[in-house]
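User: Please fill in residues for this 190-position structure.
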C-alpha cells in the first residue's frame, strides 16, 4: 500500500469501475469534506480534474472530472463519483508517502502527464508489473468481462455502469469478451 503504482492499479484494477485515460492531469486536494467545502471545491477548481481526499478518514474521497474524452462538448457536464473507502485509503497512504499536487507525475519533469504521456506511463507500468503487454483499455474490457456478472445485470444496471465508466451502453457491450466455449462456437482444429 502506498507505492506510486498502486493508485494506477487501484483506479483501473476493480476498486471502482475503471475510467478511460482521463486521470493524466488530475490534481489531489486534501480538504474538509462537509457539504460547504465540497460545494466550494466544485467551483474553485485548481485543475480540470481533481481527487478530493477528506481529512476525515471515515468519509470517502470524490473524483471530479470536468474534462474527459466522452463529455458532450455542446452540453458540458461535471462528472463526479465517490471513490469508496478502500480506494480513498489507498490514495491517502500514497499521498502521505509521496506528497504531490497531482495524482500522477512525470518522473523527469515533476509535472502532470499529458493525455498521451499518461497512456505511455500506464503501458510501461503495467508491462513492468504484469511482465506482459497491457493497456488501460484492456483492463476496462477485462473489468466488464471477468470481474462482473455482466450477463446477469439488468438493462438499468448496465446503463448505470456505462455512465460510471464514462461511455455508452453500446461501447460497453463491445467491451464484453465472449469466450468461444461460452458462446457455443466450436473450436476449429488446424
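Assistant: Residues filled in for all 190 positions:
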Amino acid at each position: 500500500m502506498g507505492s506510486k503504482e498502486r493508485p494506477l492499479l487501484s483506479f483501473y484494477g476493480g476498486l471502482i469501475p475503471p475510467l478511460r485515460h482521463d486521470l493524466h492531469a488530475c490534481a489531489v486536494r486534501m480538504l474538509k469534506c462537509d457539504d460547504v467545502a465540497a460545494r466550494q471545491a466544485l467551483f474553485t477548481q485548481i485543475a480540470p480534474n481533481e481527487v478530493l481526499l477528506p481529512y476525515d478518514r471515515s468519509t470517502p474521497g470524490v473524483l471530479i472530472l470536468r474534462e474527459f474524452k466522452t463529455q458532450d462538448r455542446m452540453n458540458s457536464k461535471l462528472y463526479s463519483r465517490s471513490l469508496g473507502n478502500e480506494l480513498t485509503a489507498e490514495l491517502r497512504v500514497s499521498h502521505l508517502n509521496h506528497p504531490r499536487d497531482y495524482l500522477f507525475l512525470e518522473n523527469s519533469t515533476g509535472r502532470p502527464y499529458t493525455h498521451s504521456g499518461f497512456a505511455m506511463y500506464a503501458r510501461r507500468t503495467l508491462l513492468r508489473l504484469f511482465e506482459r503487454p497491457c493497456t488501460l483499455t484492456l483492463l476496462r474490457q477485462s473489468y466488464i468481462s471477468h470481474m462482473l456478472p455482466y450477463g446477469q445485470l439488468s438493462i438499468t444496471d448496465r446503463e448505470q455502469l456505462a455512465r460510471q465508466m464514462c461511455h455508452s451502453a453500446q461501447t460497453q457491450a463491445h467491451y464484453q469478451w465472449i469466450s468461444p466455449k461460452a458462446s457455443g462456437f466450436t473450436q476449429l482444429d488446424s
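For context: The CA atoms of residues 17 and 164 lie 6 Å apart.
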